Amino acid sequence: MITHQGSRGNRRFSAVVVFVALLLHASCCCAQLSPSNLNYFADRIDAAADQLDVARVPSLDEFVSEVQAAIATVQQELNVGTDRANAAAWLGYLKMDELSEAIGELGERNQPAKSRDETRKLMMALAQLDKVLGDMRLRLTINYPGLERAQIPQLRTAVRQLDAMLRHRDPERSIEYVRAQMVDVSKALRDSDETTQAEAFYQLDELTRLLIETRQAAALVADIRARFHHPNLRVGVGSGLISRIASRPFSEPTAINECLLGTFIRGRATLSGTVTTRLLPSEGVAKIQLILQGQLSSQNRGYRKPVTVDAIGYGHVTATKVLNLDDAGIRSEPAIATAELSSTIQRVNHPLKIVRRIAMKKANEKKGASNAEGSRRLERRVAKNFDRQSDEGAPMGDGKSTPPRDLVAVLGRLGVQEPPRTWSSESRYLLATLRQKSEQDLAAAVPPPWISGSHDLSIQIHESLINNVMTQILAGRTMTGAQLQQLGKSLAPEMKFDAPATDDPDQEEAEEPIITFSRTRPIIFEARQGKIWIGLRGTRFQQGDQSLRMPLRVRAEYEPTFVVGQGYMLQRQGEVEIDFPGTQRLSIGQIATRKKMERVFDRSLPKQLLDKPIRVPVKQLPESGIRVQEFSAQQGWLSLGMR
Predict the structure, then answer these.
(1) Exposure of 459 by Cβ count < 10 A (0-12 exposed, 13-18 middle, 19+ buried)?
(2) 232 with 437: CB under 8 angstroms?
(3) Which three-class secondary structure state does DSSP give residue 237?
(4) How many C-beta atoms surround the C-beta of residue 200 within 10 A?
(5) Read out DSSP for 68-120?
(6) 3-state class (DSSP) for residue 348
(7) How far apart are CA 106 and CA 121, in angstroms?
(8) What gap in Å lies between CA 341 and CA 296, rounded to an integer?
């Protein structure tokens, strides 16, 4: 049953920063497009703007029907597939009746208004549906176990689509808006330079979403998506860390009891040495080669009537085994072993000297054949044992909880599609490359740059990853600081989301900030020119009785600073920037609200990032954590090398 409920306490928007910081520590676009590419897309947009068709805009009724069908499916699933108490708990949490009532109210009012009163009631019904959809999105987009199961993802998708289509309920006005956006984006692309290209990309990204929502310019959308198709996250595990995890010394004593070329041999042998690792160049699957290097020593006695022969043996053994890693798990190839044995006969035991002499001669004659046969047997035995021990030690997918599986479950609860992964390896890193985007998203325009150094971990995050994930979670949502705190705690229970300390004794703690995030690019994350920018975009900010209803942008600039003996950290530069795109002048009241925003976000956006060690639950890494030793922010890619 559902027992978890959100708690209040964080009255700032530091949780927004934590979302980005999580991806910086994990750990989520504007690659430099050539002038010819910019002009090409501008020309394509201009041509498509003349071919917009209002008849293609989907009807709001289509999405209302999808929501109603999803509600019915979830209700049936809960009533049939779970016990009564749990079904009641889920129905109480989801509050689907409220959504059904709001849809029904709009259905009654959604007809041409004949009076001012009917117009007012229609607008009230639309506002109520918008609010209920927003509340539903909040309940469906949080890290609660169960939200990734059954038919709830289908309901989440239907709610998101209806929420987005409310602004397109008037097809003719929607087409005019889309056409105006196409004119603006075309101009932005033609006029963009190195400093403005990031903003031009996000305008292109927003236009792509609009075209998909209104089902316009399919060829243009396909062309844009084909250009921005590269992965937007790459995680590397260094060969040194893999070696520390998998390498080990060994010493294995073994009893000898076998027949070799007609002679029964008994004794003891000890194989000692080390197992090391090496990464093999590979695309599509990561390859780790295990290398066993060992020395064999033995003391044995051979029995062949009427004599016994005492001998010592020694030799060198090499075995290799390749582990293949991909989404299916770890698969091992059969081990291959080589061995070279030699032996020294110490004495022949028999009462008669002549017998001892003859036996010694025959033993020396057969020593080469005996060593060759012994080597072959040793190769088979070592390969078999190496296979057994390696397979027992490798995580072959036992169904237990692992960080990757846990992350996939969290993404499912948040409505973020599980990204396809590509595995590869080269001499320095085992690499997992991901491309996170939905059908409406753009990915990176260029592949990630190479990390120049050798580190324990490398993480490369493209701007589009942050944009795509945060758009799914926050786009268009109105949230308080407490709600952001609740969402942040559900994502990272181990992190603290307490309100920032303040020295202002007159601060009005009862005034909870409220923000409505933009429908596109709600979180700002830019990595360019050796710096990063972090912030948010919204359409409304309110605290107490002061409110701003206009496009707003909040961002802070961070520059890397290297501290000897520690590593790189990000230092905030100056004050937090707050501006209002498209607004010429602010009223006196709006200026006062802006001052309050400055105080709120100055406390929320930290002065430093990456200033503390990053703890990774791997025992071969320091318990205190690792630090960033290599930093790069270019062409939309943030690259971190840590050890």
Answers:
(1) buried
(2) yes
(3) strand
(4) 22
(5) HHHHHHHHHHHHHHS-HHHHHHHHHHH-HHHHHHHHHHHHHH-S---SHHHHH
(6) strand
(7) 9
(8) 8
> In degrees to the nearest 10, what's the CA dihedral of 383, 389, 394, 399?
120
3-class DSSP state for residue 45? helix
What's the CA gap between 225 and 121, in Å, rounded? 41
Beta carbons of 267 and 301 less than 8 angstroms apart: yes
Angle at 292 between CA 286 and CA 321, to 5 degrees: 35
The owner of tokens 């201009």 is 46
Distance, CA of 248 to CA of 77 (rounded, Å): 51
Q: What digits encode the pLDDT tens for the residues 479-490? A: 887 777 776 666
> Each residue of 506-556: pLDDT tens digit?
444 457 788 889 888 898 999 988 999 999 999 988 888 888 888 899 999
Are 407 and 432 in contact by the 8 Å Cβ rule? The answer is no
Angle at CA 162, nearest 5°, toward 481 and 213? Answer: 105
Q: How far apart are CA 342 and CA 38, in angstroms?
A: 71
Q: Which residues contact 36 (CB under 8 A, 6 or more apart)?
A: none
Rounded to two decimals, what is the model's pTM?
0.80
Instruction: Return the C-alpha torsion angle 503, 505, 511, 515, nearest 10.
Output: -20
Q: What is the mean pLDDT of each run of 10 residues along the chain (643 residues)?
A: 34 42 40 74 92 91 90 85 82 88 81 77 85 85 76 86 86 92 91 75 87 93 90 92 89 85 86 92 94 91 88 90 88 91 87 86 83 86 85 48 59 77 93 88 88 91 89 82 71 49 47 84 89 91 84 92 92 91 80 85 87 84 89 92 91
Rg (CA), the chain: 33
Length of the chain: 643
Token pair recorded at residue 635 = 């062409």
Cβ(436)–Cβ(419) below 8 Å: yes
**SS3 assignment, position 449:** coil
β-bridge mates for residue 258, sequence order: 265
Tracing tokens 């181990």 back to the chain, one arrives at 494
* CB distance 241 to 456 below 8 Å: yes
| 450 burial level (CB within 10 Å; 0-12, 13-18, 19+) | middle
Packed helices 116-140 and 84-94: angle between N→C axes, nearest 10 degrees: 130
Contact between 544 and 597 (Cβ < 8 Å): no
Residue 540 belongs to what H/E stretch? strand 531-543
| Beta carbons within 10 angstroms of residue 432's beta carbon | 20
Eight-class DSSP state of 134: H
CA distance 384 to 336: 9
**In sequence order, what are the residues at sequence separation of 6 or more whose Cβ sits closer than 8 angstroms to the Cβ of residue 354?**
none
